[in-house]
Amino acid sequence: MSEPHRSYWLKQALSEAPPSTAVLEQDISADVCIVGGGFTGLWTALHITEQDPSVRVVIIERDLCGSGASGRNGGFCMSWMSKATGVLPLAGAQEGVRLLRAFADGVRRIGTFCEEHRIEADYRLDGWLWTATNPAQLEAWNSTIDILDNHGLHPFEALPREEVQQRSGSKLHLSGLFEASIATLQPAKLARGLARVAVERGVVIHEQSPMTELVRSPEPVVRTARGSVKASSVVLALNAWAHELPDFRRSLLPIGVDAVITEPVPEQLARIGYSNGLAISDSRLAVDYYRTTPDGRLSLGKGGGKIPFAGRVGDRFDTESERSREVQDRLVHLYPELKGVPIAAAWQGPASRTANGMPYFGRLHDCPRIVYGHGYNGNGVGPSYTGGRILASLALDRNDEWSNTPLVLREKPKAFLPPEPVRYLGSKIVSAAVKRGTRLEDAGTRPDRITQALSAMVPGGLTPPPTQDG
């Protein structure tokens, strides 16, 4: 089997700390078996060991810890204040405010954890710009600001156009909001660092050991090609790969994101005024997001990539990006001063979308000893810290504010996707409409009603989808 195409982040992390865990090659037992060695699975294990160090925790990972979405994203460690229009109606005023504050606190706690455990993840708490790069995106955040104001939360500062352009280093930005409590980091270094700390605490990690069967019984069993884990509780921390299970086939949409990163150009970035750790994203449905690195690189990612057929995520994103030229062109459009700068790497990965833009946590209805958490809608680096607290409480059968939060589903996740092949063909049509609408908006033209209607079918991401003009 050939080596999968790795993201720049993971290649860099592995060059500094090669894998040291073994493949599962025997039948073992544990109190908690976690399937998935990304941020959600690792934070779950770490929260469990903090609450009760005597709990035996085993992590099963299909590839390497951090090889999934956790090591392929843009490294935006964000709160969920931008998701207030989803969180507050779902959770209610009091619990919703508590959750939003907890997600914001998670960003700071990740930085503290890195400092305490010597995880060199390039954590920089320099804030986030939520911007508009065409007239149609202006004031895309109004509903978010309104609902936050109504609940006494004021995390955003509205900036004049001149300041947005100065901070971002790009004249393409027309307006924007600034949220100070957001960080950027090297995501794969964080994932590998969390795995190291977990092992130091006694967690057993088996990499390159994909789950081949999930036995749903009072003591569930996770089988791999060469061994198995029998556990009192199983945590499914699969993110987009959860779509491969029939339970989530119609409630979770995996969709590709593509990214590039330049060679170091610190002098050019300094000249345009963009050389700190500021995170930036625009307000289009297929969001563009970009940031710099401490050694003077610029990385840009783009949503709205490929969608796998029939839930077969597998290794479909373990190849070179098919949209690298498109992403590079967008980078140069935003920063024409960087035209001709060499691209060091390009890669792709899956994000996961849910119907309401909120992550799903819960128990499998036919086997309550198996719990799950996934669906961060492209924003999981920071929220996975709190997601891990929720899953730790569920796995340990704790009766607390985390196991009882409204984010924990009491029923099966909403099935909003049609069956195949309608889902795949429909996603192609909707994706084409989103791209067409974005091109028209960038050109200053309002999309036609059919394009608007199709674009409105996109499940919630950073910015709520548009509604058809009435």
How would you describe this protein?
The protein is built from 12 helices and 18 strands. It is an alpha/beta fold and 470 residues long. It has a domain at 124-183 and 256-353: D-Amino Acid Oxidase, subunit A, domain 2 (D-Amino Acid Oxidase, Chain A, domain 2, 2-Layer Sandwich). Strands 1, 2, 8, 9, 10, 11, 17 and 18 form an 8-stranded mixed β-sheet that branches. Helix 2 packs across helix 10, helix 3 crosses helix 4 and helix 11 (422-442) crosses helix 12. Residues 464-470 have low confidence and may be disordered.
Q: Identify the CATH homologous superfamily of the domain at 124-183 and 256-353.
A: D-Amino Acid Oxidase, subunit A, domain 2
Count of DSSP strands: 18
Percent of sequence in beta strands: 15-25%
Oligomer: single chain
Alpha-beta classification? alpha/beta
List low-pLDDT spans: 464-470
Instruction: Tell me the CATH topology of the domain at 124-183 and 256-353.
Output: D-Amino Acid Oxidase, Chain A, domain 2
How far apart, in Å, are the first and last alpha carbons?
Answer: 54 Å
Return the CATH architecture of the domain at 124-183 and 256-353.
2-Layer Sandwich
H/E element order: HEHEEHHEHEHEEHEEEEEHEEEHEEEHHH
- Radius of gyration based on Cα positions: 21 Å
- State the major sheet: 8 strands, mixed
- CATH class categorisation of the domain at 124-183 and 256-353: Alpha Beta
Mean pLDDT: 93
Q: What is the helix fraction of residues, given as a range?
A: 25-40%
General form: globular
User: With helices defined by DSSP (H or I, 4 residues minimum), what is the helix count?
Assistant: 12
